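Cross-check.
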Amino acid sequence: MQISKRLQAVSDMVASGSCLADVGTDHGYIPIYLVEEKRISSAIAMDINRGPLSRARENIERNGLSDQIETRLSDGLDALLPGEADTIVIAGMGGPLAVEILKRGRAVLESCRDLILQPQSEIWTVRRYLDENGWRIRRENMILEEGKYYPMLLASRGNSEALDIVKLFYGPRLLEKRHPVLLDYLKKEREKLREVREKLSVSGSEKAAERKREIQKLQEINGRALELFQEAEADTRI
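Predicted model, tokenized:
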């Protein structure tokens, strides 16, 4: 099966032989791909909505994988029992919703080895939750597909790193690796924030002033992240 660049990058984080649960499976592409590639032998594909779950079931049947991939109607992790999966994928939903799913599924997560998360927004909320609840971010990746940036991470049980605001926003492993896609994103974000701040400057309202202060804080975080790339570049020239 051919899958998107985003789903490919998420799938690449799944360890061979994993017992996989895909939360918010939509079309079921990730479990189908991984089973077809013989990376895993079985999976549970779950979704809160009957429509997407029906499409996933059709795709699974079309690929002759009904004996290996089970589908379940589930609000987050509600339909998953402890011990049924050692790897959980949550991809394609907002960061706050992903955090809520993790909070509600604490009992299930006790027997989970790996979390593979690809939030569509506010990923800093996910990183903060993991750091404060006994999960350590082991790997991160970021890809650009059709003009959109997609960060993703793999976390397993471990001690807190006490992530600072820059690492929460942009990822400890992405920053360590000086990931080139992250650098491109930071530069584009710097220009976007500058343009927004300039537009806010022409307004004298208190609401605009408050928003301008928020943008300034984001600019500071962005600037600190870019400085790490500049420091690394300077080190290579020494």
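The chain has a mean pLDDT of 95. The first helix runs from residue 5 to 11. Passed to J.P. for a second look.
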